[in-house]
Amino acid sequence: MSRESKKILAGLRDALAHAKGERSAVKERTVRVPVINVKEIRSELGMSQPEFALRFGFPLGTLRGWERGVAFPTARRASC
After folding, report:
1. Sign of CA dihedral 42, 46, 49, 51
2. Range of the domain at 71
3. Residue 80 within a domain
4. Which residues have C-beta within 8 Å of that of residue 42, sequence separation ≥ 6?
5. Are 49 and 19 part of one and the same domain?
6. CATH number for the domain harbouring residue 70
7. Any residues with CB less than 8 A from the CB of 55 and at least 6 apart, and which?
8. Three-state SS for 52?
9. Where does residue 72 rank: exposed (0-12), middle (13-18), buried (19+ CB within 10 A)?
10. d(CA 64, CA 60)
């Protein structure tokens, strides 16, 4: 097995241990995303809700929820 393959395998084992809640060398970081005004961005682009949703790949219902303040765009938690 090559050195690179061994490193990949070790990383996968570490990721699996982390996913199981076991001790691992995985370093987690939380990224804080500022609150954004989606409606303002859409308006500045001169796009309708359906146009904006289609262009950026959001479900229209999700976009409407963001604009009404019922839901908010969220960041995903990433491990490094």
Report:
1. negative
2. 31-75
3. no
4. 49, 52, 63, 67
5. no
6. 1.10.260.40
7. 47
8. helix
9. exposed
10. 6
- Number of domains comprising the chain: 2
Give yes or no: residues 35 and 71 share one domain: yes
18 and 25 in contact (C-beta within 8 Å)?
no
Q: Which residues of 15-49 are buried (b: 16+ CB within 10 A; e: fewer)?
A: eeebeeeeeeeeeeeeeeeeeeebbeebeeeeeee
The tens digit of pLDDT for each residue in 7-42 reads 999 999 998 999 999 988 888 888 887 878 899 999
Please state the separation of Cα 50 from the chain's center in Å: 22
Evaluate whether 38 touches 63 at the Cβ level (below 8 Å): yes
pTM here is 0.51
